[in-house]
Amino acid sequence: MSAFNTILPASVAGRFYPADPEILRKDVETYLSQAQKPQDMAVKALIVPHAGYIYSGPIAASAYKLLEGRDIARVVLLGPSHHIAFRGVAVPKAAAMRTPLGDLSIDQDALALLTQEPDVDFLTEAFRPEHSLDVQLPFLHYLGKDCLRLIPMLVGDVSPERLDEILEKVWGGPETLILVSSDLSHFHPYDQAEQSDKSSSQAIETLNPHFLQGEQACGCRPVNGLLARARRLDMRATTLDRRNSGDTAGTKDKVVGYGAYAFEYGRDAHLPDFERQMLRDAAVTSIRHGIVHGRVPNVDLQSFPARLKALRATFVTITLAGQLRGCIGSVEPHQPLIVDVVQSAFKAAFSDPRFSPLQEKDLSEIAVKTSILGAFRPLPARSPQHILEGLEPDKDGLMILGAGKRALFLPDVWQSIPDQQQFLAALMQKAGLNPQTWPKDMQGFKFTTESF
């Protein structure tokens, strides 16, 4: 039998999940039936945990629930190597990966393409004892994905930027799902793990590819590579579920953290109407509450769905009788979306220094617009032309930093300043910079918004 006819065995069947097919099928079915599915989420990539099912199965199911009814042909499956250390990325010389539910074939053409890269090589022995990929397969098989092709990759010592380049080779379109396997912190007391895992989730939702280290996530390298690519491609990350073994089937003295995260392209990450309405209601309630009580209302996060609890930066724009009446927001995501909207609405109504505070008589004539900001992506800024060449009018917002000054224009500003040169000049004036003098330390960042 040639190496490429080899079938990788189910390495942890009977330990991390049942070896009996019927029991395993029933367990997976139960986990999925108990998971909640966010509406209208066009997921391109997932991060899922990889512990024994009694510990992490419910958290993993919240991610796999999004694949129900999806037509997927390939899964790029990335995880850490727990047993063999190496540099770069390893792939197996094998034809399929086995589960108690059946075999899943490996995309040989994709492996041939990947191994042309200098940092990718065959290392089949790393896959035989490895559980990080193995535990994902029964979920994929149960969901009717037995006809898909796997592209299994174990990630060793490689930078996020280099893994981004490697992923580009097999990224594909809607037919390809990117699935990263990683647990979070390991063997801390419950409260300490909670703090660590909260910080890790914040790094994931803000697409920070240089925050996670091994003590925060055993799959930090594949996760960081995904985050680097997600930022470059203007994606959005949402925490679907985050718990630890002390919440599921273990004690609280030494716990392991688990998180499930979904990634969408910014162009597809549109909140469903009922979630937009929640934000509209929250913004208006914040303004009314401010008029009556003079402060921002409290927000009960537990009553809102996952996407409204994700860390997002927002701007709220208020117009009165069609004229600008206030516009304030956040540049960096630092708090849940629903909280940021409530606070931005309050500030736009009462703290914009260009206008006097709103009064109750104004409420019948105001319109409130919310803009959810995507990730800031750097632009070459050696000259005005370099920045303008990287901008797409009517789509991209722009933030500039230079000579100790900063200013931002939302994409909406293109409606009033359609000329690119004037757009940049006006932004420099807003920052207090002379449009005729280009600061040597100038930086430019573009971003997109979801506005409604």
Characterization of the model:
Helix content is 31%, strand content 24%. The chain is of the alpha/beta class and 452 residues long. The protein has three domains: 3-265, Protocatechuate 4,5-dioxygenase, Chain B; 273-373, Glycoprotein, Type 4 Pilin; 377-451, Dna Ligase, domain 1 (2-Layer Sandwich), CATH 3.30.1490.150. Strands 1, 2, 3, 4, 5, 6, 7, 8, 9, 10, 11 and 12 form a twelve-stranded mixed beta sheet that branches. Strands 14-13-15-20 form a four-stranded antiparallel beta sheet, with helices on one face. The chain has a four-stranded antiparallel beta sheet with strand order 16-19-17-18, covered by helices on one side. The longest helix has 21 residues, at 273-293. It is globular, with a radius of gyration of 24 Å. The termini are far apart. The model has no long low-confidence stretch (mean pLDDT 95).
